[in-house]
Structure formats: C-alpha cells, structure tokens
Amino acid sequence: MTPQHTEEYDVVVVGGGPAGENAADYAIRGSDRTAAIVEAELVGGECSYWACMPSKALLRPLDVLDAARHLQGIRGPLEPDPAGLLARRDTWVSGYDDRGQVEWAEGAGISVVRGRGRLAGERTVEVTAPDGSTRTLRARQAVVLATGSAPVVPPPLRDIGAWGSRDVTGVTEVPARLAVVGGGVVACEAARWMAALGSEVTLLVRGDRVLPRAESFVSDLVVAGLEASGVTVRLSTGTSGASRDDVRDTGVGRIHGGPVTLRLDGSVELEVDEVLVATGRRPVTDVGLESAGLTADDVAGRTHGGALPDWLLSVGDVNGVAPLTHWGKHQARLVGRLLTARAEGRPDPSVPEDVPVPQVVFTDPQVAWVGPTAAQAREAGLSVETRDAAYTSASGAALLRDDATGQARLVVEQGTGRLLGATFVGPDVAELLHSATVAVTGRLDVETLGHAVPSYPTASEVWLRLLEAEPATDEV
Ligand SMILES: Cc1cc2nc3c(=O)[nH]c(=O)nc-3n(C[C@H](O)[C@H](O)[C@H](O)COP(=O)(O)OP(=O)(O)OC[C@H]3O[C@@H](n4cnc5c(N)ncnc54)[C@H](O)[C@@H]3O)c2cc1C
Ligand SMILES: NC(=O)c1ccc[n+]([C@@H]2O[C@H](COP(=O)([O-])OP(=O)(O)OC[C@H]3O[C@@H](n4cnc5c(N)ncnc54)[C@H](O)[C@@H]3O)[C@@H](O)[C@H]2O)c1
Q1: Same domain for 157 and 194
Q2: Last residue of some domain: 319, 343, 367?
C-alpha cells in the first residue's frame, strides 16, 4: 500500500486557477503563515490555458485588423494569418506549461501540491496524485474551495464528441464547417475567431437574441458584426438532435470524427464538420462536501458564512456568483483579507454592499457593461430611468473607425439620480468601462458626474451625451 503523509498548512486551497492563486497569496501575504494550492491539472487554471488568455490572444489581432480595414489612410490587402494567430495563442498559453505560474506561487511562499483534492472531513483535504499515491493535508485555519466550473452539454449533443471551450480555444485543426450552439459569451467570441481562422461558421441561437443577459439593444449590433465577419447567425433556432457515425478521440482542438448532422427544431437538418457546444457552465462541487455534512447548495452564491463552517470558504466560479476571472480574483482578495484579519485576531473587515459586476465581451463591436440592465433593476424592484446615446455622438468615438457604430445606456435610480449600471457597445469600449465601474462603485449621481470632464476628442465624451439625454422610464 502507498504510504500516506499528513502535512499541515495554515490555508489549503483546492484548485489553482486565478481565484485559488489569489486566495492563497492574499491569505498569507506579508506574514509567516503557510499555504498550499492543490491542483489537478495546470496551475493557472482554465483561465490561463483554455479560456480568457487563449481567446483574447486570438481576438486582439482581429480587433486591430477590423479597425485597420476601416481606416482611411491604410492600404490593403489586410488579412488574418491563421498560422500566426495560432502561434500567438500558443505563446500566451506558454505551450500549456505551467512552470512560470509554479515559480510565481513558490516565490510567494505557496506550496504547490499536484493532484486531485477532496475534502475528507473538517479542515482535511486528501490529495490523489497522478500516479495514484495519496497525501493528506490539514489546514490549521481554513480550506478554500476554488475548483472552478465545467461546461454543460445538453442531452441531444452528448454522444457526438462535440467540441467544448477547450477545443475551440486550443484549436489546431480548423473544421471547414463549424456549427456553434449557444448565444452567450463563449459562442459569440469563438464564432468570430473561428471565422477568421477559415471556418464557415453557423451560430445556432435558441433564443431571439445573442447575449441575453445584456441590454436588449446589444444583440442587433453584435449579430451585425458577426455577419460582417462572415458568420451565419440563426436566431430562434433550437438544436433538437445530433448524429455522427464516426466519433473519434483525436484530442483537444482536433476534429473529433466524421461529419455531424444536426436537427434544428426537429425538422431542418444541417451538416457540419464539427460542433462547438457553448451552452453555459456549472460549478465543480464534487469535492467531498458530504464529508463535512455539506452540499453544493451550501457553497452556491457565497464565499463564506451561511451553512459553511468558519474553516471552509469558496472563491471563483465554484460559488457561481459571477463566473468571471476578475470577480473570482476580487472574491479571493476579500477572502484573503478576511483570513488574515481572523488569523491576527482582528474583526472581519467590512465590505461595501452592491459592488457592481463588470463584463466585457470581445466581439466586433465590443460590448461592455457594469451593474444591472434596466430590466434587471426593475425586476429587483427599483424605480429606474434610462439615458441613451449613440456611441458615435462623441466625435472621439467616431474617429476610432470610419465605420464606427454603437450605442450606450445609463441606468439611473429615480429620485436619487444615482448611477446603477451602464452599457457601452462600440469600438474600444472595453477600456471605457472602468469609468462606469468607478462611478457605480462610488455611488455617484448624474449631477456629480456632469462635472467629470472627458478629454476632447475621446470616446469618453459619450458620457456628456448620456448625461444630457432625455430620461426614459418605459420598458425597453
Ligand atoms: C472560452 C472562455 C473564455 C473566457 N474568457 C473570459 C474573459 O475574457 N474574462 C473573464 O473574466 N472570464 C472569462 N472566462 C471565465 C473564466 O475562465 C472563469 O471565470 C475563471 O477561469 C474562473 O476562475 P477559477 O479560479 O474560479 O476557476 P478555473 O480557472 O476553472 O480554475 C479551477 C482550477 O481548479 C482545478 N481543480 C478542479 N477541481 C479540482 C480538484 N478536485 N483538485 C484539484 N484541483 C482541482 C482545475 O484543474 C483548475 O485548474 C472565460 C471562460 C471561457 C470558457
Ligand atoms: N469575455 C468574457 O468575460 C468571457 C468570455 C467567455 C466566457 N465568459 C464567461 O464564461 C461563462 C460561460 O460562458 P458561456 O457562453 O458558455 O455561457 P453563457 O451562460 O454566457 O451562455 C450560454 C448560452 O447558451 C444558451 N443555451 C443554454 N442551454 C441551451 C441549449 N440547450 N440549447 C441552445 N442554447 C442553450 C443560453 O441561452 C445562453 O445564451 C459565462 O459566465 C461567461 O460570462 C466570459
């Protein structure tokens, strides 16, 4: 039998993605306390190798290309270089080697324990290494769950070896015809880079718009941009069945067999060479919670407290609050500060309420929003008004591209004039978003914001147009 070792750390973090790495770092930073990260695959997590980093490495050259193609004064032909795009992706994922991240962790005083971790009762994590040997880690202060999320594959698409987000970010073999099922962030972003790599892409969207969690005006602009990139977008099209005679395990990013026939809404058929399923993700919670008398519901929606004992916390996608890297890292900083305060016998640090969640979607045009949409604010029982402006009403925005287009909206609380949310669609709005995030977090009102003067001629002048816009209170 393989011998077992028990090792003690102050904090044991299960999962070494961006949330877990930051939780471990902030929990021991500047102290002589100890932390271990238990990681089953690569330190850096989904984000570094199969999600944020490869996708944005592929998309950034396309942003520059799309802008350059629409700027008088630049001569073509301007074309994507598929081999160059994939090489750039490989650079950004460090060739799927996590040595750099392990060095960072060790430099920060964090031990990296390779293997799959499971809770084995209070403060205890059992780790099974790739060679089958086991180690037991004991956390003097706390265990932090940071096990991330996994894709959800709807039943009709389960047995055809369909691509998931790892395949499309790790693509090495470009299918001639690709169907993308889903209308969310992964689907819209991936459709764009796969079209640039040479696939004939059909986006199959069950609902009547893409990015359904964004303001309703966003979808038309994103669909127009996808179509301009050569993507066929089919709205209100469910995928009810799929068949593939020849399913092969060819590896991540390769075509997984012969052609696939999709049944759309039960009757129409579509034949493609590969299918990307991008229909959402679920938290990874099969980590022995029952050994501590807990269930996945006890982790859902919270980092600590509730039914969770004081020795167990969670950060990142696993708690499902907002499955975004920056949100997981924010939670990790808060959890790290909380654990530090408790270790030093200080009261729990206070945390402001209503901290808004920002999100950027790297389509063309880009989409960026923070806080609730008007509809979400109303559903939450708030009385709100909206203020709308064309993005190009700011001459700085119109200067960015000859074909610039876009729209912006503020969601403002009636009575107080407080800014609750904002959405921008257009070229380069990703970097504009933080102005709105600061304003919402700072609980600023529209009167005060009128004295924040944007430089001329920048896209930020859209703020002036928004603040001067006629408030609307109807449902749009
Ligand atoms: C294609 C794609 C693009 C994305 N782009 C963006 C973006 O641009 N911006 C953004 O903010 N978000 C983006 N996201 C979302 C982002 O990837 C996640 O929100 C983020 O990775 C969550 O971080 P995490 O640390 O919670 O989990 P993960 O990054 O999933 O890391 C969890 C880690 O835990 C490990 N693990 C799991 N179970 C165990 C176990 N039992 N024992 C040991 N280790 C375990 C896993 O191997 C993994 O390394 C994207 C997602 C996808 C799919
Ligand atoms: N730029 C970014 O910040 C970025 C990029 C990619 C992913 N992410 C995050 O990763 C997470 C996962 O992204 P995602 O796009 O997979 O999920 P998502 O939740 O954003 O979108 C899933 C989409 O699939 C649709 N869908 C669900 N079930 C379906 C079915 N059976 N048939 C057809 N369509 C179905 C939904 O209506 C929805 O439009 C999200 O939280 C997202 O925010 C962020």
Answers
A1: yes
A2: 343
CA distance 151 to 182: 12
pLDDT recorded at residue 4: 58
pLDDT of residue 475: 64
pTM flag (> 0.90):
yes
Assigned domain for 81 exists: no
From 37, 39, 52, the mutation candidate for ligand 1 (largest count of ligand atoms within 8 A of CB) is 52
CATH of residue 190? 3.50.50.60
pLDDT at 476: 57
Chain centroid, CA 266 distance in Å: 32
Q: Is the CB of 326 under 6 A from ligand 1?
A: yes
Interface pTM (ipTM) of the complex?
0.98
CA of 45 to the centre of ligand 1 (A): 5
CA distance linking residue 410 with residue 463, whole number of Å: 9
Give the distance (Å) from ligand 1 centre to CA of residue 148. Answer: 5
Tell me, yes or no, whether 204 lies in a domain.
Answer: yes
Query: Whose C-alpha lies nearest to ligand 2, atom 14?
Result: 280
Nearest ligand atom owner, CA of 368: 2
Give the largest CA-CA distance in the chain: 75
Whether residues 435 and 293 fall in one domain: no
Number of domains in the chain: 3
Q: Where in the sequence is the domain holding 169, given as residue range(s)? A: 153-279
Q: Is residue 60 part of a domain?
A: no
**CA of 151, closest atom in ligand 1:** 53
Query: Which ligand 1 atom sits closest to the C-alpha of 325?
Result: 11
For residue 77, how far is its CA from the centre of ligand 2 (angstroms)? 34
391 CA to centre of ligand 2 in angstroms: 26
pLDDT at 323: 98
Asked whether residue 54 is assigned to any structural domain, the reply reads no
- Out of 279, 301, 318, a domain closes at 279
pLDDT along the chain (476 residues), means of 10: 72 98 98 98 98 98 97 95 98 98 98 98 98 97 98 96 98 98 98 98 98 98 98 97 96 98 91 98 98 98 97 98 98 98 97 94 98 97 98 96 97 98 98 98 97 98 98 81
> Does residue 360 line the site of ligand 2, with CB under 6 A?
yes
pLDDT of residue 232: 98
Give the number of the atom of ligand 2 that is nearest the alpha carbon of residue 211.
Answer: 39
